Amino acid sequence: MPMPKFLSVHGAAAAVLLSALPAWAQSALPGFELEHLEINPGRGTAVMRSGELLVPGGMSLGLVGQYQQLPLVLLNGERRLEAVRNRASSVLAGSYGVLPWLEVGAQVPVVLWQQGDDPAPLGLTPLASQGLGTPEIQARLGLLSRRDDHPVDLSMDLGVGLPIGSAAVLGRDSGIRVRALAAIGTQVGFLKPALEAGVLLRSRNPLSGPSASGQMLEVRLGAGLTTAGQGLRGELAVKAAFAADMDQPAVEVLAGGRIPLSEGLELHALAGPGLGRTPGTPIARVLLGVSFRQEPPPRMEVLPEPVPQLRLEEFQKKPEYVPDSSVEPVPTRELLPPEPAPSPSP
Question: For strand 215-227 and strand 191-203, is the pairing parallel, antiparallel, or unpaired?
């Protein structure tokens, strides 16, 4: 069968040989992890790390809901199948500060609802509408910290995806999923810039070719900018991913803000377009979430031995106290200036 002529359209599109699937044999769409965007469970923004770690004993919890439009479109010549037209999901994420240089976290994504075109005429079974995504556990290592008078915050994230998601909802890769990512951030005036760079070891996307198998190394980059302050704060993030099994880079631009609701509790919202036609890159994404962070105050430096606080009376009562014999007490009246002599009367 000749190779089909692929169409290039805006949005997330994957070229597959749909016509190669016999119409009388129902087959499932190859399972893989469709989601590209990562949620940040610790300090920073919802989608960007800042290089900061929680202080020991600090805790961060967050719940993010998101909507994606057209994250997966399949093209073959003139045929177009919107396999996933609309997708709503949520992510529960948390992080805990263990040591000044170590923070551990986890997140659990769930696809709440998704729908698309009926693939039955093409010999494909419909995707599941609900299911579990790929849960992840991670460790964040602090390398530099502005708390220690360094010019920037620098951290390294190591994450492992657990292969227990639902393949029927496109929530699980067929092989191991490991991530290593470095984040750096600082504050310049009222602005807080941050950068991310790392790699993701994952299964090769089965839609990239009829014999796609094995592991693939995906490069991930990110840049973010937030405003500092106590009230409403703005956020901007650009995320990109590159891999050999992608026809184009997956790029998303998200902008929004966050506002405090009470002490430690914040509400945040982000929205923006996706650029490219890589599976998992929607033409539009909207995030709405709430986060809670609680950290103990920094510990004060404690002297190794407390300095005794003694009053003068207690000090004089001690046996080793010997008053200096060369110093004699002076009556109070001798310290006063002499009274002037009375002037003679005329």
Answer: antiparallel
**Interstrand relation of 13-15 and 59-76 (parallel, antiparallel or unpaired):** parallel
Residue 240 lies in a domain: no
Q: Which of 82, 48, 50 is nearest to 68 (CA)?
A: 82
In angstroms, rounded to a whole number, what is the distance separating the alpha carbons of residues 193 and 198? 17
304 found inside a domain = no
> The domain spanning residue 78 has which CATH number?
2.40.160.40
317 forms beta bridges with none
Residue in the block written with tokens 């923004």: 45
User: What is d(CA 306, CA 219) in angstroms, rounded to the nearest whole number?
Assistant: 54
Listed in order, strand segments (DSSP E) in the chain are 13-15, 59-76, 79-99, 102-115, 131-132, 136-144, 153-161, 177-185, 191-203, 215-227, 233-242, 250-262, 265-275, 284-294
Write out pLDDT tens, residues 213-240: 688 999 999 999 999 988 899 999 999 9
**Tokens read off for 176:** 């191991």
Measured CA to CA, the distance from residue 287 to residue 256 in angstroms comes to 9
Residue 51 lies in a domain: no
Q: Cα–Cα distances in Å, from 333 out to 136, 330, 337, 338, 339?
A: 85, 8, 9, 9, 11
169 is a domain residue: yes
Domain total in the chain: 1
Can you give the pTM of this predicted structure? 0.79
* Domain extent at residue 206: 58-230+257-294
β-bridge partners, 79: 76
56-105 pLDDT, tens digit per residue, is 999 999 999 999 999 999 887 778 889 999 999 999 999 999 999 999 99
